[in-house]
Amino acid sequence: MSTVRVEDVAKEYDLGRTKVPALRGVTLAVEKGEFMAVAGPSGSGKSTLLNLIGCLDRPTSGRVLIGEQDVAALGDDALSDLRARTIGFIFQTFNLIPVLSALENVEFPLLFRGGRHGGRARALAALEAVGLRDFGSHRPDELSGGQRQRVAVARALVTDPSLVLADEPTANLDSQTGEAIIDLMLDINRRAGTTFIFSTHDPKVMAHAQRVVRLADGRVVDAT
Ligand SMILES: Nc1ncnc2c1ncn2[C@@H]1O[C@H](COP(=O)(O)OP(=O)(O)OP(=O)(O)O)[C@@H](O)[C@H]1O
Ligand SMILES: [Mg+2]
Questions:
Q1: Is 128 helix (H, G, I), strand (E, B) or coil?
Q2: Residue of the nearest CA to atom 18 in ligand 1?
Q3: Residues 6+ apart with CB under 8 A from 147
Q4: Strand duo 195-200 + 163-167: pairing
Q5: For the chain, how big is the Rg over CA atoms in Å?
Q6: Ligand 1 within 6 A of 11 CB?
Q7: Is 45 in the pocket of ligand 1 (CB under 6 A)?
Q8: Cβ(42) to ligand 1 under 6 A?
Q9: Rounded distance, CA 220 to CA 224, Å?
């Protein structure tokens, strides 16, 4: 069973007077437990594709299925629920909340899940899993770039998602730190079976992927 299916998806951004075709018919199946990279030049549609898979946006045409569920059939509430329960996000610029400590940032997604989940303990465990047990009280500006991205990885994982989407997670890190983040993601992929889809420009980062899907001008040009 595929975790993600993208079927002939097109996305056009409507800028009023002009329309920008960002994806022009992308078809892709991602199996559970894959560690997959999306590569391609700037403007090729990587972020657009990840946003559609993450249900942050809807395609102009075509279908996106997450765990066999056609997401177009879901209303906004059901979509938010799907996102909160099954998908973790990691962003290029970390997107941590500056006034919250590392621990509070990691705990944050649990607030949207309703019920009681022992949030503090789970957040601590997630921080420990990324090697930051002793940094829980630090605010983002008291952490290095690599440490901030580790916090973001912990935040993506704290809800125990089956799918993690990472849009250029290493782009703001030096190459050694970037590779360490990818290794951390790979370790989680192997231990927990979490599916990862990440985009990158960096051939060194791509080399860690099990599979690389290349985009150019909104189309898949080479899937290995
Ligand atoms: N919100 C938007 N409104 C209008 N056009 C957009 C929007 N987002 C992206 N685009 C356009 O869609 C195309 C694909 O953009 P996208 O951000 O998906 O590319 P990318 O591969 O992620 O690029 P990069 O490597 O620079 O992040 C580009 O032509 C871009 O200008
Ligand atoms: Mg992008």
A1: helix
A2: 45
A3: 102, 132, 135, 138
A4: parallel
A5: 17
A6: no
A7: yes
A8: yes
A9: 11
CA distances from residue 95 to 35, 140, 144, 172, 212 in whole angstroms, order as listed = 23, 10, 14, 12, 25
Decide if pLDDT at 117 tops 70. Answer: no
The closest residue, in CA terms, to atom 25 on ligand 1 is 42
In angstroms, what is the span from residue 50 Cα to ligand 2's centroid? 9
Going along the chain from its start, the domains and CATH numbers come out as 32-57+75-223 (3.40.50.300)
* Reported pTM: 0.93
The verdict on the CB of residue 93 being under 6 Å from ligand 1 is no
Cβ 113 vs Cβ 84: under 8 Å: yes
Q: Give the residue, 36 or 224, on which the prediction is more confident.
A: 36
Torsion sign across C-alpha atoms 162, 98, 171, 39: positive
- Ligand 2 centre from 39 Cα, in Å? 10
The secondary structure of 18-31, three-state, reads CEEEEEEEEEEEEE
Task: Tell me the CA–centroid distance for residue 45 and ligand 1, in Å.
Answer: 6
Which has the closest alpha carbon to 47: 223, 221, 222, 215?
A: 215
Average pLDDT of the chain, as a whole number: 92
